[in-house]
Amino acid sequence: MKQYGVIFDMDGVLVDSYQAHFESWRRMLKRQGLELTEREFAETFGQTSREIIRRFFGGAVSEEDIARWDDEKEVEYREIITADFPAMDGAPELIAALSEAGFLLAIGSSGPRENVQTVLDHLPNARLFAASVNGQEVTHGKPDPGVFLRAAEKLELPPARCVVIEDALAGLDAAQAAGMPAIALTGTAPREALAEKAELVVDSLREVAPTGVRRLIDRHAAAVH
To answer: 107 by DSSP, 3-state: which?
Structure first.
């Protein structure tokens, strides 16, 4: 019997973390007398915090300060989501259904190790994940494929037998670069843009079912070969 894997992006897929991340950026940057507009914030989905700081403020910030700002921002974020954990609608149910159907499950996130652990500590059914990868385990964040390739390696599956569930364009680029089919969840990017990069676009995780995921992987594998 073939073994299949599902690699979940974390932010915007397992955790409805948009407001928590934006607010944590706002709080941290306010202490520095700076700001990040919501439009700029939306352009960074899938990237690490340090990459975001370098992108917008790198010319005036030392590497030491980048590391400090990164730590402060992520502490703010964890405090916000721990106070009222925002699981994505349908995420616990999909995790349970996929696990029961025999899929191996992993989290593939560009976020810090502590953020991933916070999600594992609070998300219902998180015990069903066989593996997780965080941004500190790879050299580059998405759109580099390293996060997803490392997740497939931990699941001991070839990339073509894994599907990625993502909401960010950078994450979908990473899935393509990794040779994995992708399911895109609407919410943080235009549907048309997601459809250009994913095999399937859904408005809710409740639209995803194990039989459909298995067919998607088989169809992708057949097309590749």
So the answer is: strand
| pLDDT exceeds 70 at position 224 | yes
Give the residue-averaged pLDDT of 3-25: 95
Q: How high does pLDDT run on average in the chain?
A: 94
Give CA–CA dist 170/47, Å, rounded: 8
Cis peptide leading into 143, omega within 30 of 0? Answer: yes
Give the pLDDT mean for 84-101: 97
Which sequence spans correspond to the domains of the chain? 5-16+87-224, 18-83
Residue 84 in tokens? 């009222």
Q: How far apart are CA 96 and CA 82, in angstroms?
A: 22
Residue range 18-83 forms a domain whose CATH class is mainly alpha
CATH superfamily, domain at 5-16+87-224: HAD superfamily/HAD-like (3.40.50.1000)
The DSSP H or E segment spanning 53 is: helix 49-57
Q: Is the alpha carbon torsion for 205, 11, 200, 189 positive or negative?
A: positive
Pick from 82, 86, 64, 70: which is nearest to 28 by CA? 70
